[in-house]
Structures are given as C-alpha cells and as structure tokens.
Amino acid sequence: MFDAPVARCIICPRQLLDHETGRYLCTLCEQRIDRDLAALAGPAGLYARLCLRIQPGCRGDGPAVSGTPGRELPGGEPLNLTANGGIVSDLETWVRDWATYGLATIGTGGRLQHRIDQAVATLRLNLPRAVYRHPALDDFGKEITQARARAEAIINGEQEPRRIAVQCGCGAVSKVTLDTDGFTCRGCRTEYGHTEALSLPMAARAAA
Ligand SMILES: [Zn+2]
Ligand SMILES: [Zn+2]
Fold first, then answer.
1. Ligand 2 centroid vs 22 CA: distance in angstroms?
2. What distance in angstroms lies between residue 118's CA and the mean position of ligand 1's atoms?
3. What are the CA-CA distances from residue 188 to residues 12, 89, 139, 178 (Å)?
4. In angstroms, what is the span from residue 186 Cα to ligand 2's centroid?
5. Residue 10 — pLDDT band, cuts 50, 70, 90?
6. Minimum-distance ligand to the CA of 16?
C-alpha cells in the first residue's frame, strides 16, 4: 500500500515526473493535444480539407460546382462535422469554458474557417497554462483527438476508425479504437487508460 498518492496524468495516466508537479497532464499528452489542435486549423488543415471534400467551392476560393447537390456523403457525417454545430461549435464551447478560467479569448465570429482558426489559436496559446489550471482537460483532450481522428478518417476515405472489442473483468464488452485514450466500463465503471484498455482480452468475435 502506498501512503502518499501518486500524481498521475489524468489522460494517459502516466505518473507525473518531478518537473511536472502541479500539472493535470503529462508533457506528452499536452504535446499530443497541441498537435491535434494544430492539425485542425489553417488553410491546409483538416477542417479546410474536410470542407473541400464536401463542397469544393465552400471556401469561396474554388470554382462553384454546378449540379452537385449531393454534398452530403453517405451517413451525413462530414457535413455535420463542418457545419455550424460541428467541430466549430465544439471548439467554441471549450473556448467559452476556458475563458471562465481566464485561459482563452472568445473569438470575434466570422466565417466558419476563421472561427476554427481563432478558437484553435487561443486554445493552443493557453494550453501550457491550462495543464496546470483546467481540471477537465481529459474530456477536452479526448474530444480534440476524436475530432482529428474522425476528420482524418473521412478525408482518407475510411468509414470509421477500426474498433476492437475488449472485455472487462466484469464481463462487459467495450469497443475501442487503437488510438483510444481509454474508456470507462459500462458494466462496473472501472476506468481504463490507453495501455490498460488495449491490454484487456479481446472479446469473442460473436460478441463484438
Ligand atoms: Zn499523459
Ligand atoms: Zn467492467
């Protein structure tokens, strides 16, 4: 039994090193979130490419495509991701949340791409301070990673990130992706980190 609780990253959950004292996240998770955020923004970022994939003229700098009402790909996912309520509002919700901690500047609005870029810029700028001050960075990190993974999957023409079915000791089966940050078992509420999740026994195919 340990007397002193060990400080761990709330995402991965690696044990925090001495120079990471006081942080909610380890340095590696901070860097990954920063990379995921950066990947979403900018003229060559995932959001812009997702937009192009749905509607080649949607940024106003390409030829209008006539006679192609089928902007919505099967499943409707890309449009949901790029529309006003998609990635943009997910990011802006976090910006408003971080602003209550003095950790973000709320954007000035404008075109969707501009709003994405503004949100990403203020979140990246403040991430190094947020790792010490924002207790919900695990939820934030998961959402950002998922947004990146979904966008990449669509751009790369994949249907969905491949999932594997793993079985908790309590018997409940959960489906996780190979890049999972972990999950909470629906059966017994045990929390698994990335490594622990992928170390669980795979469920029988029939149960998957
Ligand atoms: Zn970590
Ligand atoms: Zn369980």
1. 30
2. 26
3. 20, 32, 20, 22
4. 6
5. very high
6. 1
